[in-house]
Amino acid sequence: MNNWYKKSFWRNLVDMHIPDWNPEFLSQFDPEHYADMMEKANVDTAIIYAGSCLGICYWPTKVGHMHNGIKGRDIFGETVKYCREKGINVIGYFNMWSRWAFENYPEWRMLNVEGYCAVWNYNRESPGRYRVCCLNSQGYRDYVCKQVIDLASGYELNGMWIDMIGWNGTVCYCHNCRKKYLEETGREIPEIVNWDNPEWVTFVRARERWFVDFQEMVRDAIHSVKPEISIAFQCASWTIGWGSGCTEELLKIGDYLAGDFYGDSIEQSIICKALTALSRNKPIEFMTSRCENLYYHTTTKSEQELKRAVSSAFAHNAAFVFIDAIDPVGTICDKFYSMMGEIYNEFKPIREVLNPDAELMADVGIYSNMLSAFDASVKDKYIKDTITTVNTLAPMKRIGELLIRSHIPYQIITPNNLDDCSSIQILILPNVRTLTKKEIDVIKKFVANGGSLIVTGDTGMWDENGNKLSDFALAKLTGVHFKEITNEDITYMTPVGKGISLMPENEGKYPMQVSHTQNIIEVKNDVEILAELVLPYSRSDEIYKFSSAISNPPGIWTGKPSITLRKYGLGRVMYIAAPLENEENYTQKTVFTNLIKSLSTRSFIINTNAPEWIEVIAYYDCARN
């Protein structure tokens, strides 16, 4: 396999989503100048557009539509040629969205549950600019395979970069999907979303398999003519939950993980660690735009902000990709490439010592799996009225922020690297609703061998088939058993015993507020109670019998456990009866940090007086000992 990416850390992609209704569009595109700008910015790998999300091609396609503005010129091939002459790695970019295919082949279209054409839009009401075809349409599948084979066989490429699988905007109910599901299960596709209903979850699992099948088909088509080139699939859909069809299995199909992201420094920290944990090979590819986000065309980020993104990528041994966007006529901003060349020179000493195979050192692991990427509160809701996205980053980001501020090195743990987490001290399961038997066995072993575990909220209350369990899957480990959920949606925790030192501000009449229901639990005799459940006098939506018109003060001390601690083998396990990691205020953040620190069994890897906003990351580089 071509592993050019092992030594490539400074890459570029220029978005070229340009229609061809205006003859001026792309009329000034200059492949040689494009390559000159790559050289000016010191780019070592150029990801070059062969076509766009509109389905319009920049090479003489045999099965699609070539852009009218380039008048038959193979601008893709010319750009590849000029970049290769400068010693730049070349990756062919191909987009799975195709407005051209959608409009010319109605039978390929994705359809929503009511049979309307699924067009991508952000207010879910009005038509958008994009069009999506169904991955189960045989005609569309054949079209995609012919195009990627044409590209892979016709040009000297180091790899291909496949975009937009999983960014659907809807769940497809076209005749192809309905027929396929009926053949596989003997049932119609369910139209009611209910995560407690195995019939709905069976469909979700089938849909995930369909995405794997499609992505493997694309990979195999490319490798049928160029088995040596790398293939990367856009993986940012991992961040939006079940609607994208993304699974850990899907993420293993590409050679390395790559995606474009637009959040803050904490989000970048989470993303780089998570993708590294999920990727088959390293380095992962962190991409971000020249402008504030992709909706801007001329609002370039400050040099400081670009340097921050580069710093974080390199601190995670990741390749950095800066994304520009072509002007409609085909020109690009020369000044920007001069600035990126200067930034490259500033970071050159760091870049030269990066080692993607170095091992991240961490004291704490935050666990995440794609099986839990759903909103459990959605029950018996019509699919058309259901939001199909879930922010999978949110719990990791909130915990990551606490650990960064406390200078506690952390990593993201996934099913891919759960077996290898013995080096960390503390593993956190933040409301990880669904756990498999394999995950449960590995977690038990981790604690039995001396690890510390924090379990919050509804962790382990569902199995992978959509069955809501009567008790926690980790009950034998935690010594905690589920009984019911509080009716009250604002609840409190008051410290008792050894918990008082961890929650000193909340002893007595002023317990810690939790903006969530709590699980009412029973515990075994060997379980230590650190905090107990306190309730207000009513729910927050009660309009008559309330205790205070604006807030919902504590009033009922139940004596029921709320935070518990138990020894298991050589380790310890803590259970928190609500997703405390979701709280955003100082008091709750401080308590959660104290709880984490209380489970450490040795000094943390890093001891520093650096400001809170600086993340300190350590690696062990085996190659350099």
Mean pLDDT: 96
Terminal Cα span: 27 Å
Question: For this structure, what is the CATH class of the largest domain?
Answer: Alpha Beta
E-strand count = 27
Proper CATH architecture of the largest domain? Alpha-Beta Barrel
Total discrete domains: 2
Strand content: 15-25%
Widest beta sheet: strand line-up = 17-15-18-19-26-25-24-21-22
Q: Cα-atom Rg, whole angstroms?
A: 26 Å
As for the CATH topology of the largest domain, it is: TIM Barrel
Structural class: alpha/beta
Separate helix tally:
14
User: What is the CATH superfamily label of the largest domain?
Assistant: Glycosidases
Helix content: 25-40%
Largest sheet: 9 strands, mixed
In a nutshell, what does this entry contain?
This protein is of the alpha/beta class and 625 residues long.
Secondary structure elements and pairings:
Elements: E1 10-15, H1 31-40, E2 45-49, E3 56-57, E4 65-66, H2 75-85, E5 89-95, H3 99-104, E6 119-120, E7 130-131, H4 138-154, E8 159-163, H5 175-185, E9 192-193, H6 198-223, E10 230-233, H7 248-251, E11 258-260, H8 265-278, E12 285-289, H9 303-315, E13 319-325, H10 334-351, E14 359-361, E15 364-367, E16 381-382, H11 394-405, E17 410-413, E18 426-430, H12 437-448, E19 452-456, H13 475-478, E20 480-485, E21 491-495, E22 512-514, E23 519-523, E24 528-536, E25 554-568, E26 571-576, H14 586-598, E27 618-620
Parallel strand pairs: 1-2, 1-13, 2-5, 3-4, 5-8, 8-10, 11-12, 12-13, 15-17, 15-18, 18-19, 19-26
Antiparallel strand pairs: 6-7, 9-16, 14-27, 20-23, 21-22, 21-24, 24-25, 25-26
Helix pairs in contact: 1-2, 1-10, 4-6, 8-9, 8-11, 9-10
